[in-house]
Design a protein that fits this description.
Elements (H helix, E strand, L loop, with lengths): L26 E7 L5 E6 L5 E9 L4 E9 L6 E4 L3 E2 L8 E6 L8 E7 L2 E8 L4 E5 L6 E6 L4 E10 L6 E8 L3 E5 L4 E2 L2 E2 L3 E2 L13 E4 L7 E7 L4 E2 L2 E2 L2 E3 L4 E6 L5 E5 L7 E4 L13 E9 L5 E10 L4
Antiparallel strand pairs: 1-13, 2-12, 3-4, 3-7, 4-5, 4-6, 8-9, 8-11, 9-10, 12-13, 14-27, 15-16, 17-18, 18-25, 19-24, 19-26, 20-21, 22-23, 26-27
């Protein structure tokens, strides 16, 4: 990057957006395995929640238990734990593993292997990786549960005994738009530059018009909203990028600058931007997008807000 503030705003481009589908209700993909024994379970996130953590109990040969921890649109705040499926107590030889689901790391597919009267292995897929629990066995059979495009797995159905699962199916739902705040905003004479969503618009939801705003902006400032697809580097420069060369050593650019929106604060010193997602394509669902505000004070000093890592969703 150069010493020119305006050069920081390079990379303007147009987003190519198509029509968005209508929202769908939960879809239950029926369980695979032994459906005749144990206790029937149906564990799924509430309408305003989604999985943020999957807790798995297993030994070298069997799946022993599953549990989900929920969150809402804020991917860093837990809203509670689901019922423990299968083994509910400590047992020698059983390992407990945790799959952390960061923004964008939703469960998109679950493969299940079953033999005789129990589930012996599961494979959990996120958009970037997969995790195996339990083990294959001679004579087992496999079933794949794949969430439709734009959806995520939000729960499980099936039958369970006290120490293992007899069968396993999944519940899918359109992906919930969510975000995670990172970095710290600079401070003006009126307070910190900290991004927020206006009203109930909590996240980048296809088919909606969320409004993101930054308060405490001095009047007569020139303002930009920065859209980015990376928080690690931009044009070969590692991020965050400190604005010391521009006279603001306490401020940072936390994300790439792939698209910008120019504006000015209103009379209440709030710089607001309406995001028109009414025509966005379902192909964008699950994409990580970064948002940050940058202002050029009337005295010529650049200031930046904190940043939001958002996941584009259908709900």
């Amino acid at each position: 990057m150069t010493n020119s503030p305006l050069r920081l705003l390079a990379g303007l481009f147009g987003l190519c957006l198509a029509a968005a589908p209508s929202l769908a209700q939960d879809t239950v993909l029926p369980p695979f395995g032994n459906l005749s024994g144990g206790t029937i379970y149906d564990v799924r996130a509430a309408a305003s929640a989604q999985p943020m953590r999957l807790i798995v109990k297993h030994d070298p040969v069997l799946l022993r238990g599953l549990q989900l921890e929920w969150c809402g649109r804020d991917m860093t705040t837990s809203t509670g734990l689901s019922t423990q499926l299968g083994l509910t107590y400590f047992q020698q030889g059983v390992t407990t593993d945790v799959v952390e689901l960061a923004p964008g790391e939703h469960i998109r597919r679950v493969d299940v292997w079953a033999i005789a009267s129990l589930v012996n292995m599961v494979r959990i897929y996120t958009p970037t990786t997969s995790y195996d629990f339990g083990a294959r066995a001679t004579g087992d059979a496999r079933h794949n549960f794949i969430a439709p495009a734009g959806e995520q797995v939000v729960g499980f159905v099936g039958n369970a005994a006290s120490t293992y699962l007899l069968s396993l199916g999944v519940v899918t739902r359109p992906l919930l738009a969510s975000d995670q705040r990172f970095g710290s905003g600079c401070t003006t004479a009126f307070g910190p530059l900290s991004l927020r969503w206006r009203h109930a618009w909590m996240g980048m939801t296809i088919g909606q018009t969320p409004i993101v705003e930054c308060p405490n902006v001095p009047l007569a400032s020139v303002c930009w909203y920065l859209y980015g697809f990376s928080n690690t580097s931009y044009l070969g420069v590692p991020l965050p990028y400190n604005l010391a060369p521009h006279g603001s050593p306490s401020c940072n650019v936390y994300q790439s600058i792939d698209f910008t929106v120019l504006g000015a604060p209103d009379a209440s010193r709030v710089w607001a931007h309406t995001i028109d997602a009414t025509s966005w394509s379902v192909d964008f669902v699950g994409m990580n997008l970064y948002l940050q505000a940058m202002i050029l004070n009337p005295n010529g000093v650049l200031k930046t807000s904190d940043s939001l890592q958002t996941v584009i969703g259908l709900l």
